[in-house]
User: What shape does this take?
Amino acid sequence: MIGEKKVLFSGMQATGSLTLGNYLGALKNWVSLSEEYECFYSVVDMHSITIRQDAPQLRKRARDLLTLYIAAGLDPEKNCIYYQSHVSGHAELAWILNCFTYMGELNRMTQFKDKAARHADNINAGLYTYPVLMAADILLYQTDVVPVGNDQLQHLELTRDIAQRFNSIYGEVFTIPEPYIGRVGARIMSLQNPSKKMSKSDENPNASIYLMDDPDTVIRKCKRAVTDSEGVIAYREEQPGLRNLIDIYCACTDRTPEETVKEFDGRGYGEFKMAVGEAVVGVLKPLQERYVRLSQDKELIDRVIKENAEKAGYYAQKTLRKVQKKVGFPERIR
Ligand code: ATP
Ligand code: LTN
Assistant: This one.
């Protein structure tokens, strides 16, 4: 708890252009939770280097992502929006937690297996211990809830196990975090293959809508989305492409699938796809306008970066000092 509020932590990697999936599955939920909780939203740049990065490009993407958090509606005065690499406590706690994590546990992580297969030439130790750094991110702030997509649940389960193990040895040091999975948009699928999730690293540009796509591109991608030959607008598993478009439409217009099916009863796919495209444009356009305005305000962004790193650092140090004392590191002499 910080004051009267429970603590929320989440983060995203700056490793590519964000998609509508990232927005509807993560960012949009972050905004809706931001009043209720004391929030820490990090740009997890230390996680990014587990895959080889170009330094100037990583720096630019990290700043773009931080700006996008604000453009999506997170108020930087109320939410702690900061770079992970600016708070050294993440790395310090990660080292300690490494010593409380078993290799057997890390061997089971499916994201490691996927990424190791995709980057066979660079299976580094950081990629392997990535989940421990993620556990440190979360536990450093005594986090109560962590909003993530389904794909991160395994990492969160590991975080809870590490925290419980530590607490059972040293007493109640860490708060045990709970996952938060949003109701809508939990899993937006690829427009070209509805059995795969929409992902920023998809090599087919028509599969994903990017947050910075212009209106014509958005409409074109929606029109080309893979559907079926049933010809009936219905929300069912046998029509996964259409179901995904209905999910997108609902998430963008705050409607339910039932309302949507009713609204388009008896109308064709072409008309519906057009409506989906327009609904997406309706969400992206104001976001893009805010993004352009904010990215020109260097002073504001710089101030957010500086002040929020200090705020995060303050809370991080509180937990870190406690942990260092528990494990037996000598006290500092002042
Ligand atoms: P990559 O393609 O590089 O693996 P990604 O697009 O899957 O990236 P991440 O950076 O792993 O995105 O995830 C950022 C956040 O967005 C996570 O909380 C994740 O669960 C969520 N997310 C990513 N893709 C989707 C999607 N298609 N639908 C809903 N949520 C998503
Ligand atoms: N692993 C996450 C990003 C991430 C994160 C976190 C999410 C790093 N640290 C802490 C929630 C809490 C991803 O790849 N999406």
